[in-house]
Structure formats: structure tokens, C-alpha cells
Amino acid sequence: MRRSDREITDRNEILGVMEKCDVCRLALNDAEYGYPYILPLNFGMKADGEQIVLYFHGASEGRKYKLMAKDNRVSFEMDCGHQLVLDEASGNCTMNYESVIGRGRIEIAREEEKEEALRILMRHYREEDFPYNKAVVPQTMILRLTVEEIGGKRRKKQINSIPI
């Protein structure tokens, strides 16, 4: 990382940033087109010991499944805490943020894992358990990303601007 002064190295702090984020962007390898395929997804997270697992849900067909079948290695990114910081005295501005970037392998979750994954997903966005319609579980596709590498970055700058 070029700016080590912004690096988040503490695992619990990285998990804290992830808990604040509401979208995770996945990048899949698309060798046919020669460019990564990126998609924003809602997610849930489970941290068990050193292992972090991200869960995603969606329809049961689409481009991502074709790409996953060819290469299940993915990169992911999530960010939050965006705030424009103006320094009117010097005429400069910057942006505060927190972000997490990582890599791992993604797969379709096992059928017996789906309900727990859906609870984890819902808990990420709502504290209480949400009584979702269990009839939709068989039609819902759950993806499981096992994180292999992760890092965080933060910019928190405060400027005491002189009022004009």
C-alpha cells in the first residue's frame, strides 16, 4: 500500500468498516472480453475465528454464474464514510472515507446453508430478525465468498477552516 499512514491493519477495525458498508462490489474475471466484470451486491458477513465469509443473494441465472464456473477467483471492494473536506483557506479539498479490498473464492452455497446465510444477510441491514417468506428460499441463489486476503484503508482529515 502506497499510503501506509492510511492503512488499517487491525482485523477488528477492518470488520468494523465492513459492518458499516451497505454494498460490496465483486470483480469477476471475464477472459472472453478481456476486462473484469464488476457488480454491486448487498451482502452479509460471518467472521468465525480468522475466517471471513461474505454471502450474497440473487436470481438463479446470469452472467456472474457463467464467469464463476470458468474461474471462481474474485476481488471485492466496499467503502463508506464519504465526506468532502474543504480547506477554504488554502483552496484545497479532500475526501474522508473508509474502504476494504480483498480477494477470495466464490461458490454457490450449499442448500443447507441458505437459511443461515439469509439471516446473516438480513442482520447486516436490520438488527432484529426479519421474518422473511421461507417459500422463496428454494428459488433464491446464495453465493458464498471465502475471503483469502483482505486489507483496509481510511482517510479521516479534519480542517478548521476560517469562516469568511
Structure description:
This protein has 164 residues and is an alpha+beta fold. Helices cover 18% and strands 44% of the residues. Strands 1, 2, 3, 4, 5, 6, 7 and 8 form an eight-stranded antiparallel β-sheet that branches.
Distance between the termini: 38 Å
Tally of extended strands?
8
Helical region count? 3
The chain-level structural class is alpha+beta
Strand fraction equals 35-45%
Can you tell me the overall shape? globular
Low-confidence stretches: 160-164
SSE pattern: EHEEEEHEEHE
How much is the radius of gyration in Å?
19 Å
Mean pLDDT: 88
- The percent range for helix content is 10-25%
Sheet having the most strands: 8 strands, antiparallel
